[in-house]
Amino acid sequence: MPDACGLRHGETLQWRAMAAGPLLVVALAGYLAATARVRRTWPRARTAAFVAGSLVVGAALVVDGRRSFTTHALQHLLLGMVAPALFALGAPITLALQASRGAVRRPLLRVLHSRPVAVLCNPLLAWALFGGSMLAVYLTPLYRLSLDNSLVHEALHLHFLVAGSLFFWPVLGADPLPRRLPHGARLLMVFLTIPFHAVLGIALLGAAPLAPEHTLADHRAGTGALWAAGDLLGLVAVLIVAYQWMSHEEREAAREDRRADDAARLAGPS
């Protein structure tokens, strides 16, 4: 059946492929072209993360989440957590800075240090958008509206991806930011988002399906996916931040040892 925009499910998927497909291809091609310019110094793990993130977005958009709440929940997790985390680990801004010349690098740095970017990278705003939007979508009529209107449905997909990116960029990413968070604050940000999945899971498990076309079994399976998988992905993010923290401390210790050795050599024999 057509929705409020007059689009059937198949037409929605076709429109989505035409709109999002080229953007993904251009972004991935641009990233790979940039890695070719700095291939001797660019870590392969970052390239693998960005490529995986692009594939995750593509996989999430080739299915129609309006037919099943479970499918929608998986789409939500892929677009709102998995893909943004992989994109952050891919460090695309750092790559762009390394692969570009002064004519491009200087404007990019000005944008990165601009007031709007500083506001968007505010940890409190990122936390509120990431966690609060989950409650707003499922505990208000917004989810039901997205099933009846293709534009609202696609806007939700974009919101999940943007909100997740704003959250994971300062938490997991290596890109330059107006203000870099210490690793302890990054861990705290991730820990503070984990309860959102539990609160949402408890609220939805005791409620009726969010749409008449969703069965009770589908509703419970989707709720379980949001809760359990959301918590699991949050714990994975905790482990990644902890690993990054330990690696940072090891590099700092090695740097201090080199400084001490250099100072000893300059001082000469006693």
Could you explain the architecture of this structure?
This protein is 80% helix and 0% strand. The protein has helices spanning 9-37, 44-61, 69-90, 92-99, 102-112, 115-120, 123-138, 142-148, 150-172, 183-205, 216-267. It has one domain (9-263). The longest helix has 52 residues, at 216-267. 29% of the residues are buried. The protein has 270 residues and is mainly alpha-helical. It is built from eleven helices and no strands.
Secondary-structure map:
Elements (H helix, E strand, L loop, with lengths): L8 H29 L6 H18 L7 H22 L1 H8 L2 H11 L2 H6 L2 H16 L3 H7 L1 H23 L10 H23 L10 H52 L3
Give a nutshell description of this structure.
This protein has helices at residues 9-37, 44-61, 69-90, 92-99, 102-112, 115-120, 123-138, 142-148, 150-172, 183-205, 216-267. By secondary structure, the chain is mostly helical. Helix 1 crosses helix 4 (92-99) and helix 7 (123-138) packs antiparallel against helix 9.
